[in-house]
Amino acid sequence: MEGIKKVTWKQFFNNFDVSGYAFADCIQAEEIGTSKYVILNAHDMLIADWRIDIISSEEGIIRDRDGTQYKIIDWNEEPLIYIEVEPTDWYSYKVVYPYALLRDDIL
């Protein structure tokens, strides 16, 4: 696995840009404190993101659009990813904070 960066979920999502994401208001946003968050399963998020290719779902190897490969060392965990949003006038949510967060990041 030469050339593959070994990272945890937290390390991978630490600077994962979600500023281009948008959500219809039929997606439920959870209020935590004074903010609202759309909450996604990390695996589902990677499957849906066009910038990520899953190379091996058994070994947790993914590749970003720049060609960098990552091995998520805690791949078998099921972390939830929190995306801070606010409602718009067009029955949707827009992203407020441009990076994905884990629960520990917001508490």
Explained architecture:
The protein is mostly beta strands and 107 residues long. 15% of the residues lie in helices and 41% in strands. The protein contains 3 helices and 10 strands. The strands form 2 sheets. Strands 2, 3, 4, 8, 9 and 10 form a 6-stranded antiparallel beta sheet that branches. Strands 1-7-6-5 form a 4-stranded mixed beta sheet. Strand 6 and strand 7 (69-72) form a beta hairpin. The longest helix is centred in the middle third of the chain and has 7 residues, at 42-48. The mean pLDDT is 94.
Count of alpha/pi helices: 3
Kindly report how far apart the N and C termini lie.
35 Å
| Fraction of residues in H or I helices | 10-25%
| Number of beta strands | 10
Topology pattern, helix = H, strand = E: EHEEEHEEEEEEH
Biggest pleated-sheet summary: 6 strands, antiparallel
Q: Write down the domain tally.
A: 1
Shape: elongated
Low-confidence stretches: none
Strand percentage: 35-45%
Compute the CA-based radius of gyration: 14 Å
The average pLDDT is 94
> What class do helices, strands and sheet pairing give?
mainly beta
